[in-house]
Every structure is written in structure tokens, then in C-alpha cells.
Design brief:
169 residues; two-stranded antiparallel sheet; 2 strands; 65% helix; globular
């Protein structure tokens, strides 16, 4: 019932379902591993939800689940998590992009090895999020070819977070 409510139109119902899932999984920890596939796929789908409170609740639930499931049990589902994270990181909404960095933070904290296996796409998206591409003044880089320069975006709320160094390392 709680998983089906995650598809509801009303954001309050989705948020309530996420809180209910966390309570249920806290009370019955064996359910986490039994239903890891369903729970992780449903939570990951909410990384791009239009409501910020739903995304925040999804990140909190993801953090809770990540504390309970080791990396080797999450590995089969990680491509799906990574795909949803990529969608959030490249979303048109800046609020969703910034929340994607919170998802990345949670995954980095609990599953750094799994993230490093998918570094090609995730690192590119990460650099895009913490910086901004600017066309060089002449439209050419030092080699004479057209190019872009990456600079840190000061308008981002999350640029000062220390974990960026960990991601880059």
C-alpha cells in the first residue's frame, strides 16, 4: 500500500508514504533486504519529483536504507539508482539538480565503490552541476579550436560543501 502511494498525484500523500515506509522498515528491518528491489526502484523514481519535500523525504529514506544494506546487496540495483540520479543531475529544474547532489552525497557516503564503477557519466554530470560552462570570448580555446571554460558557479547553494573533494578524489 505504501509503495503504491508513491505514485499518487498529491505530494503530501507521497511524502507520508515515504515516512511510513521508513517507520515500517525501522520496525521490521528484515523487510529491507527482502524488498530491496521494489523499495529502491520506487525511491529512486522520486529523485526527480516536482515537490522538494518529497525529494527530501526520498533522500532521507535512501540514507536509512543505505545504512542497512551492504554494497554487495545493492550492486544489482545500482544501475537503476545511477540512471535515476543521472536524470536528476541533468534535469531542467535547478532545485532537482541540487537535490541530486544530496542523493550523490548519500551514495558516496555508503557506496563509494559502486559510484566509482559508474564514474564516467556521474563525474561529468557532477562537474556540470558544480560549475558552469562558459563559451570562451573568442569561441576558441588555446589550441585554436572552439571550446568552453569551466568555472565554479557562485549561484549554487551547495558549492561550498566539503564532500566535493571526496567525489573528485
Amino acid at each position: 500500500d505504501l509503495l503504491s502511494k508513491l505514485h499518487h498525484v498529491n505530494s503530501n500523500i507521497k511524502q507520508g508514504a515515504l515516512v511510513g515506509l521508513r517507520e515500517l522498515l525501522s520496525a521490521q528491518p528484515t523487510l529491507i533486504e527482502l524488498h530491496a528491489s521494489a523499495v529502491l526502484s520506487e525511491v529512486a523514481a522520486l529523485f526527480t519529483d516536482k515537490d522538494g519535500s518529497v525529494r527530501a523525504a526520498a533522500v532521507r529514506l535512501l540514507r536509512f536504507i543505505a545504512q542497512c544494506i551492504p554494497a554487495e546487496r545493492v550492486a544489482p540495483f545500482f544501475p537503476l539508482l545511477s540512471a535515476h540520479l543521472t536524470c536528476a543531475m541533468t534535469h531542467i529544474s535547478e532545485a532537482i539538480q541540487e537535490d541530486a547532489l544530496r542523493v550523490l552525497d548519500a551514495l558516496l557516503e555508503h557506496y563509494p565503490g559502486l559510484l566509482s564503477q559508474r564514474h564516467t557519466v556521474l563525474l561529468t554530470n557532477f562537474l556540470e552541476l558544480i560549475s558552469q560552462k562558459r563559451k570562451s570570448g573568442t569561441g576558441q580555446d588555446k589550441s585554436g579550436k572552439g571550446g568552453f571554460a569551466l568555472t565554479i558557479s557562485t549561484s549554487r547553494k551547495v558549492t561550498a560543501q566539503q564532500w566535493r573533494l571526496t567525489v573528485l578524489l
